């Protein structure tokens, strides 16, 4: 962890623009519950989690935070915090139980009412169309391996846009394709638990990119130019060992967009495999060395579909990895962590400076306004004897990260908004209910909500547009 930006005269170092949006993020599978209510079809997370051994303690998302029944009260809590925007995702199989064909009106009603109530509360809705919960019926037809999915996704997007498009002005197509493909189709520790060879995973990746492009086309057609559209990859930036040494900064920037940079993951995790085709219309040049089969499944017209103009660049950032410049072919090498470096309850390292370097480099490369759509930490939070949740670590963590994001703002990077992950403690995929990321504590047995200290702290940050970050 670098030294934090100074406490005194903070405004000389950080800046959040006047129209900056302060929000919090969630996703359908992680909060909604009501997995089989009102006609919803199952998703791959329902089936994966129901098989013993796949998720810690065999916990399932069937009830979770029961947001499906608590949404009104939860919006009241959002108002208490003063949220200006709320990121949620739409469950594809709630809207189309079979993934295509018959529409489940009750499912659409849920999102329709949610959007109305959010707007009534003065909170801007930021729906994500796909946050990992693929309808089981689509999976049974080959899921992301089947090229037909791009059209099924377009159909689903059209159904949602017809219902919500008159009121929703910001749309996110996909959340972190690297993670759901890398974990779900390569490593196998996430739904649907497959371990496909690299060429097949990349075929899936290409279909995700195509589905994204088709969804943007449908949204533009149905909601017109006035709506803002983007997507949100995961980023693990390479960070300079010495932030004052130009050669280390250059090496970290190079590594961050190097197709071989995988951070803690496997091939294709680097966002340039996704963001370059989507924002620039080109895959990294080394694609065909990596995956010669790509010649067979990338059709000539595909890149145009994938490369739709977008309005913003959203990204999720939790931690990076330190590098230094090196006298080797790639020009950088990783620096091992120092003994005892601080980590969160999830064992994730703490690298606030990524919220300065990341947006700066992303803006230089893609030239769009930037949103952080996820950032936060899990902590071993519990309700103390005084009835409160004293999550001081989270406050310190978020202060550090937000100061760095504000520093990017001061450096004239067009930062547009920040969404803390997450509003509520929720279902953390293969970790079940073990990781508490929320500003609001959830007792999963009683569904009781308790605002953590960080929620009160965040309220002040929002009220002062970041000036209280000291
Ligand atoms: C991200 C996911 C999100 C949540 C956080 C902790 O990778 O997008 O759903 O699980 O991590």
Pick out its properties:
single chain; 470 residues; TIM Barrel; nine-stranded parallel β-sheet; three-stranded mixed β-sheet; 17 helices; 14 strands; globular; binds beta-D-fucopyranose
Cα(first) to Cα(last) distance is: 17 Å
Tell me the fraction of residues in β-strands, as a range: 5-15%
The average pLDDT score comes to: 96
Poorly predicted ranges (pLDDT <50, ≥5 residues)?
none
Could you walk me through the main structural features you see in this protein, from its secondary elements to its overall organization?
The chain is α/β, with parallel strands linked by helices and 470 residues long. The protein has one domain (10-469): Glycosidases (TIM Barrel), CATH 3.20.20. 38% of the residues lie in helices and 14% in strands. The chain is built from 17 helices and 14 strands. It has helices at 28-31, 44-50, 67-81, 92-95, 105-120, 136-139, 149-164, 177-187, 198-223, 246-256, 272-280, 287-290, 294-297, 302-306, 354-366, 392-410, 453-463; strands spanning 21-25, 85-89, 124-130, 170-175, 228-232, 234-235, 238-240, 313-317, 321-325, 332-334, 370-374, 415-421, 440-443, 448-451. Helix 3 packs parallel to helix 5 (105-120) and helix 7 packs parallel to helix 9. The protein is globular and about 60 Å long. The chain starts with 20 loop residues before the first strand and ends in a 7-residue tail after the last helix.
């Amino acid at each position: 962890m670098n030294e934090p930006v100074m406490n005194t005269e903070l405004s000389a170092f950080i800046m959040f623009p006047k129209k900056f949006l302060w929000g919090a993020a969630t996703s359908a599978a992680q909060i909604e519950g009501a997995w089989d209510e009102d006609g919803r079809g199952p998703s791959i997370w329902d089936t994966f989690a129901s098989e013993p051994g796949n998720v810690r303690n065999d916990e399932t998302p069937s009830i979770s935070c029961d947001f499906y029944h608590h949404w009104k009260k939860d919006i009241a809590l959002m108002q208490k915090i003063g949220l200006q925007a709320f990121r949620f995702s739409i469950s594809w199989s709630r809207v189309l139980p079979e993934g295509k064909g018959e529409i489940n009106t009750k499912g659409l009603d849920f999102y329709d009412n949610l959007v109305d109530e959010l707007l009534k509360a003065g909170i801007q809705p930021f729906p994500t169309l796909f946050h990992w919960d693929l309808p089981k019926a689509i999976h049974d037809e080959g899921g992301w391996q089947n090229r037909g999915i791009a059209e099924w996704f377009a159909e689903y997007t059209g159904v949602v846009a017809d219902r919500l498009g008159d009121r929703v002005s910001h749309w996110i197509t996909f959340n972190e394709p690297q993670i759901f493909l890398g974990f779900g189709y390569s490593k196998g520790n996430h739904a649907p638990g497959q371990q496909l060879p690299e060429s097949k995973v990349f075929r899936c990746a290409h279909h995700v990119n195509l589905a994204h492009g088709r969804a943007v086309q449908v949204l533009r057609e149905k909601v017109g130019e006035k709506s803002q559209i983007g997507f949100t990859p995961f980023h693990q930036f390479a960070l300079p060992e010495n932030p004052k040494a130009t050669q280390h900064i250059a090496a970290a920037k190079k590594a961050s967009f190097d197709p071989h940079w995988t951070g803690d993951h496997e091939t294709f995790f680097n966002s340039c495999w996704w963001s370059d085709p989507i924002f620039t219309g080109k895959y990294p040049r080394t694609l065909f060395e990596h995956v010669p089969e790509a010649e067979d499944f990338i059709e000539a017209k595909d890149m145009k579909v994938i490369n739709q103009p977008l309005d913003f660049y959203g990204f999720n950032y939790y931690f990076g990895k330190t590098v230094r410049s090196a006298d080797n072919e790639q020009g950088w090498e990783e620096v091992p962590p120092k003994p005892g470096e601080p980590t969160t309850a999830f064992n994730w390292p703490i690298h606030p400076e990524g919220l300065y370097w990341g947006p700066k480099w992303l803006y230089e490369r893609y030239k769009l306004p930037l949103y952080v759509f996820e950032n936060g930490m899990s902590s071993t939070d519990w309700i103390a004897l005084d009835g409160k949740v004293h999550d001081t670590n989270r406050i310190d963590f978020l202060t550090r990260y937000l100061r760095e994001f504000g520093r990017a703002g001061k450096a004239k990077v067009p930062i547009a908004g920040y969404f803390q992950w997450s509003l509520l403690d929720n279902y953390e995929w293969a970790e079940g209910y073990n990781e508490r990321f929320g500003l609001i504590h959830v007792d999963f047995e009683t569904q009781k909500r308790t605002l953590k200290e960080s929620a009160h702290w965040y309220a002040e940050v929002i009220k002062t547009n970041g000036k209280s970050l000291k």
